[in-house]
Amino acid sequence: MKVLEIITAEEAGFCFGVKRAIDLAMEAAKSNGKTQVYTLGPIIHNPQVVSKLEDLGIVSVESIDKISDGVIIIRSHGVEPRILNEARNKGLHIIDATCPFVKNAQKYAHQLVKEGYQTFIYGDHEHPEVIGIYGATDKKAIRINNLEELYNFNLQERVGFVAQTTKSPISYKKIISSIITSVKELKIYNTICNTTEIRQNSAALLAEQVDIMLVIGGYNSANTKRLVEISARTGTPTYHIETFADFSWDWLDGKDKIGITAGASTPDWLIKEVIEAMSEEKKDLNMEEEEITEVVEGDEENKEVVEGDEEIKEVEEVEEVEEVEETEEAENIEDDEEIAEFKYSDNDIADLKKGQKVVGTVVEINDDGIYVDVGYKTEGFIPLRELSHRSIENPAEVVNENDEIEVVILTLEDEEGNMILSKRKADYEKAWEGIMEAYDNNEIIEAEVTKEVKGGLVVDVGVRGFIPASHVAIGYVEDLGQYIGKTLKLKVIEVERDKNNVVLSAKKVLEKEREHLKDETLKELEEGQEITGKVTKLVDFGAFVDLGGIEGLLHISEMSWGRIEHPREILTEGEEIKVKILGVNREEERISLGLKQLLPDPWEEFAKKHYEGEVIDGRITKIVDFGAFMEVEEGIEGLIHISQLSRRHVKTPDEVVTVGEEREAKIINIDPDQKRVGLSLKELEDEPENTKTQKTGKTKVESKDQKEDELTGPATIGELVGDIFDREDD
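User: That's the sequence. What structure does it adopt?
Assistant: Structure tokens below.
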């Protein structure tokens, strides 16, 4: 009987850029409802994937002229900048799935041309990726596909190179090496995707170790063709197939080892489909060989061999049961046998077999496990380790007597005659069904956080689920431990069942809820409305307040009637406050808020209580070149102009006042409309004798008539004499 060994290359199938493009397309198909979704050309060079996307309603068109409205997905190959501009001008919703490596190639090529380099693009002239890079240079670059084409051009002093991302790094180096001494200045950008090099090296290495190579991928895929060339170069017979339907068993004549690799546009399910189909086909052929041997030869010797095989099979089954019983982690249990749904009748003894999923009733609970009646001749026993995927000490934490539970039969009779069951495995299968359904349908599930680990949280979804720290909440979470024991709403964002890997996101659920809430809030907000919100962030110029799915800005100038240096003087993050809507811009989703508008206007009270000429106490709050500001009441500041600081000449205000100083000042004017008050310190100073002036500004000189007037009038001689004596005493 022939034994075939199938080996898959370490790097095969979707690359990062292609997987990202497919994920964006799938998301667009699910989230855009009745809006038509298009891809500009096949999203990848794989007809099977394109067909699946068409089933989801995603239409591939070759020209943007055929699209009038809807959603357009730019495939991973990228497009010329002019096409993006056309899409914007048409008002199309653009989902740009261009591979980041391709974007870099476009950027570098554009930069080289702009800097005046003679720019070469190494790649297939008509490949969509190369056309996009060429367009990014305004078609000023030169496309070459090999060294011979390069020799057709006269090289200038300054030369620059970029390459198609899927080109062979070795051939790229050869081209560069051939001209490195021929130019004065050479600028090279290595735009070949590193995954491409790893994939190609992996294919070459595998091809040297096997008898035949199969390369799976679209016939029009450039990177798949490159893998075929590289594999064939080793001398190993190499065949390019799109699906298993293209495979021929004749290729395996005299071959035992089969190597399999796949292009970057080949999905994992297609690779798996080929491997499984080959395995099933091989199994069928082997079975046919056994049947032919039995019928044609039919001798006792062969009969003994068959019986021997059955004995070996029984031994293998026993060993397999023991292995399952020794398994400690439910995640590692993998059973190739089909687990069939089965529920027994109370009146019959069930015809059970190993591997079946059955429903039974809990009849007894003890410290070591539980007994379950499944309608068999004996009750089945579930050991503690097979009761739950969690580590438990008391079975009563999981089940109660008379509970109906699903279990999987591990063995009908162990060495002591007991039927051994597993609730853990049944739960494991059920959990994976729920996870896959939630993932495929973009559904929300709930799970309890069990512990914090490096980089995120672990949740119980029937299997171990992981929430990266960046997906726990919308913003940064400093203390992840606060979520332990909490039940979160989650979306499944990544599934790898063969690796028992489930990645979930609470952030995506919160973002969706927030988006819906934002739309509702925006509809209801009106200028002048008073609303309660939560302070989410304090910055130097103000505070952001969550109004329900959308944040508004409360500027520092709108927080208080008085002067404040920082919002933290009156607000704290997380605080709920009542604010007034000052403005709503629905197009740009901007909302301006006010807090002081809900407080009494101090100017109205000040204008009622105070008057010009009044002396008032205050505190110097700020000094400027033209004077100083004094706070005379909370929220009210008056200006002391530099000319009103002193009767003497003042060069700078800090000669007279300092910030924080308490002073008296005289109100010289009040303007309630402009909300201004003028103050004076000069008016409170005594006028020096030697600087008394007339209104003209000249020194006041008493005339003879004035002096006589002062001496004229009703005065006695005694008064005059007394006055003289008084002055002498002085």
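The CA atoms of residues 305 and 311 lie 10 Å apart.
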